[in-house]
Write a structure and sequence with these properties.
Largest sheet of chain A: 3 strands, antiparallel
Distance between the termini of chain A: 38 Å
Helix content of chain A: over 70%
Oligomer: homodimer
Number of helices of chain A: 7
Order of helices and strands of chain A: HHEHHEEHHH
Shape of chain A: elongated
Structural class of chain A: mainly alpha
Strand order of the largest sheet of chain A: 1-3-2
Number of strands of chain A: 3
Largest interface: A-B, 54 and 54 residues
Strand content of chain A: 5-15%
DNA sequence: ATAAATTTTCAATAATTACTGAAAGTTTAA
DNA sequence: TTAAACTTTCAGTAATTATTGAAAATTTAT
């Protein structure tokens, strides 16, 4: 496998992994491309490399910036905007975990809390309350775990692993 | 909020959460329905409750069985098949984590390994190798972490949390 | 101010993914 | 065996989601 093949394979795999996780393909591919690039890339660069339209590139770059994993980089004497992504994988993982907690887990916790606090004594309602309560507790625990790990800042996954299994 | 509202809200929230995570809506809703049901449900029951077709129900039940979170339950003197889901949330979380590791993480680890072991000395290739190696290590560590947690069998999330932050 | 360079927006369209329903297949009881 | 009860399959269709491309908006240089 030569460089070009390897690069394409990486970008494609990352892209399809993304869509499996509710992140769209183009967004994941742009991030992958920036992640392995040795220099900041312009919108033109990205369009050419991934063969996607200007509009698509613009929208997905914005999303990546909303997530906080891509930033604009000014290149001296250039009018175009250039983009870079967080290059440290640990930091990348932290940011993604934090965003997913905020966007996906937190709202579910709220629903589970509401549902589990209805008042009704029928056996069906009791089962609903019991099971949503259990789910609520589990979800909150998992979310707290993520957030604590996420605030460790450095080498968190490795450190936790050592702490857990030694 | 009365029982019916609460039930619908739970099923719908679980359903849309599912699609956010690459699990289709019907599959997540069927699991949610079984999860709060006080008794095993037949295909007819599920179709009526969720207002989905027979084919859809059949296909998604099979998928849930493939995941190992739903099983057939024979009801004495009944010809129909009845279905139940794992009711213990901890066990449910374990099974899901294990399946996601097997289906999604493992294949990515393989690609990252392949990509990071190409031989090429250009600066671009060096960056690709460096970054995919870092990602490979992180992914493997996270996957090992999931698999170890998953083999703890009881109260794993809570236990790990205590262990980690006390 | 003007206009060239660049980015953003969004209606139209393409691509993907999910769902239906009826025909084919399977199981069970008599 | 037969036929009724039930389940699975899958081609066709519907619903959802992603992408394009060109017009509008913005930014920058002069």
């Amino acid at each position: 496998m030569d460089y070009k093949e390897a690069k394409d394979k990486f970008i494609n795999t990352w892209g399809s992994l993304g869509s499996l996780w509710g992140i769209n393909k183009a967004m994941a591919q742009i991030q992958a491309l920036l992640f392995i690039s040795t220099k900041p890339l312009s919108m033109e660069d990205i369009m050419a490399e991934l063969k996607i339209s200007r509009g698509n590139t613009s929208m997905n770059l914005r999303q990546l910036m909303d997530w906080g994993i891509v930033t604009k980089e000014l290149v001296a004497g250039e009018r175009k905007e250039y983009f870079i992504t967080e290059k440290d994988v640990q930091e990348l993982a932290r940011v993604i975990a934090k965003e997913r907690s905020r966007r996906e887990i937190k709202p579910v916790i709220k629903v589970l809390k509401d549902v589990s606090s209805i008042e009704d004594n029928s056996p069906e309602a009791k089962e609903l309350i019991k099971q949503t309560k259990a789910l609520h507790e589990l979800t909150e625990t998992a979310d707290e775990m993520i957030n604590k790990l996420v605030n460790h800042k450095q080498n968190w996954i490795t450190k936790s692993l050592v702490k857990l299994f030694t």
